[in-house]
Amino acid sequence: METILVLTHAALSDEFSTESGLTLSKASLEAVTAGLELAARLSAKLTIGIVAADAATAASSLASTGATLLAVSGEAFAQARYGSDVVAVEALCRAAKATIVLAPGTSRFTRIAASVAHRLDGFIDTHITALGGTETVEATRWFYRQRVEAVIRRDVRPWFLLLDAGTHAAFAGESKTVQIEQVAVTLPALRTTVSGFRAPALDAQTIRPDAKMLFVAGAGWTKKQPDGQIHVGKAGELILGFLRATGASLGSSKSLVDQGGEGEPVLPFLTHMNQIGQTGSTPRHAKGLSTCCHGEEPHVVGWRFIGDRRAISLDPNCGWTRGKADVVYIADAFPVMAKVNALLEAKKT
Ligand SMILES: Cc1cc2nc3c(=O)[nH]c(=O)nc-3n(C[C@H](O)[C@H](O)[C@H](O)COP(=O)(O)OP(=O)(O)OC[C@H]3O[C@@H](n4cnc5c(N)ncnc54)[C@H](O)[C@@H]3O)c2cc1C
C-alpha cells in the first residue's frame, strides 16, 4: 500500500503575489489536485507537507482535502534557500513515511528534490505531466522535445515525482482553521542569506507561463513591408501594446531571435528564452496567436500544448494554413494588431 506525500510551499515574492508568503503557490495547489486524484485511485493515505514562514494560513486552504497536514515553518523558510529547504523537505518525507512524493516542479523544489531523494535512498523523475494506474503508479513524461511520450513505472521507494506546471487544475476548497502537525528540523549552519529579490519590472517580464494566451512574433515583423520599408519601431509598439492589454506571454520564432547575432533589425525585448519550438520551449496555454511567422514544423512542434491556435500571415501558403492552425487570417499583421489593440483599449476605458 502506497503512502503519498504532496509537498507544497508558499508563494514567493518573485511570483508577483499580492499575498506573498501566506498563500500556497499555484503550482503547489496543482500538485495537491494530483495527489488527491492519485490517493483516491490507489485508496492510499494522503499527507500534505507545507514549507512556509507561516504555515497556518497556507494550511487553511487545504482543510477540505481531508489529508494529514504536516508543516515545517518559521522565518528561515520564508525564502527559497538550498540549505534550509533540503532539511525541511527531508524531515517532511521522513515524518510522513512517504513511498510516493509528489512535488511541483517550481525552481524552489527542483533545486532540492534530487538531493532529498538521494538522502532517502529513493529515485526521482522530473517533468511529469500525468499520473495514472490503479494498482501501481504510472507517471507520464515527454522526451526528445515533446515528441515521444513515455509511461514510467518503478519499484524503488520512495519515488519522487516533480510535476510540470499547468498539467493539473489548481486545488480550490473552502478555507477554515485546520490542525497542522509541526515537524521539527535542526538547521545546518546557513551560508546563504537571502537579502531580497531583483526581478524585471512587470511589463518587462514577457514570459508568463501562467498566462491564458501565447502571442508569438515571427521574423516578418522586422522584414520589408509592402511599402518597401521596415517598421521595427512600430512592430515593437504593437507587440508590447498587445501584451500590456492582455497579459499574454510572448513567444518568438527562431528566425526572429537569431537576427540580433546576424546584424539585422531586432526587437530589444526578445531573447532566446522567448523561442518556441524544437530548439526552444513548449509552453502550455489555452490559446495562441501567431503573427508574421511562417508556421514551419520546427516552430510549430513547440505549439503541441496550445489549445486554440490562430495565426495572422500574409502568405496564403504558409505552414499554418496547411492544417497547423485552427483559424488563419491572411492579412497584414500591422493594421490588424493596431485595430485589435485599439479595441482592447476601448474595452478597458
Ligand atoms: C534543426 C532546426 C531547429 C529549429 N528549431 C526551431 C525552433 O525551435 N523554433 C523556431 O521558430 N524555428 C526553428 N527552426 C527554424 C524554422 O525552420 C524556421 O526557419 C523559422 O521558424 C522561421 O521563422 P519565421 O516563420 O518567423 O520567419 P520566416 O520564415 O521569415 O517567415 C516570416 C513570415 O512572416 C510573414 N509576414 C511578413 N510580413 C507580414 C505582415 N505584415 N503580416 C503578416 N505576415 C507577415 C511572411 O509572409 C512569412 O510567412 C529550426 C530549424 C532547424 C533546421
Kindly describe this structure:
The chain has 349 residues and is of the alpha/beta class. The chain is 26% helix and 23% strand. It contains 8 helices and 14 strands. The protein has helices spanning 26-42, 55-60, 82-96, 107-119, 232-246, 254-258, 297-300, 333-348, and strands spanning 3-9, 45-52, 68-73, 100-104, 123-132, 138-143, 148-152, 159-163, 181-182, 213-217, 249-252, 285-291, 306-313, 327-330. The chain has a 9-stranded mixed beta sheet, sandwiched between helices. Helix 2 (55-60) links the parallel strand 2 and strand 3. Helix 3 (82-96) crosses helix 4 and helix 5 (232-246) packs parallel to helix 8. The structure holds flavin-adenine dinucleotide. Flavin-adenine dinucleotide is lined by residues 218-220, 223, 225, 253-256, 275-280, 292-294, 296, 298-299, 302, 312-315, 318, 332-334.
Key structural traits:
about 25% helix; binds flavin-adenine dinucleotide; nine-stranded mixed beta sheet; 8 helices; about 350 residues
**For this entry, what is the oligomeric state of its chains?**
single chain
Provide the succession of SSEs: EHEHEHEHEEEEEEHEHEHEEH
Bound molecules: flavin-adenine dinucleotide
Output the strand order for the largest sheet.
7-6-5-8-4-1-2-3-9
Beta percentage is: 15-25%
What's the quick description here?
The chain has helices spanning 26-42, 55-60, 82-96, 107-119, 232-246, 254-258, 297-300, 333-348; strands spanning 3-9, 45-52, 68-73, 100-104, 123-132, 138-143, 148-152, 159-163, 181-182, 213-217, 249-252, 285-291, 306-313, 327-330. It is of the alpha/beta class and 349 residues long.
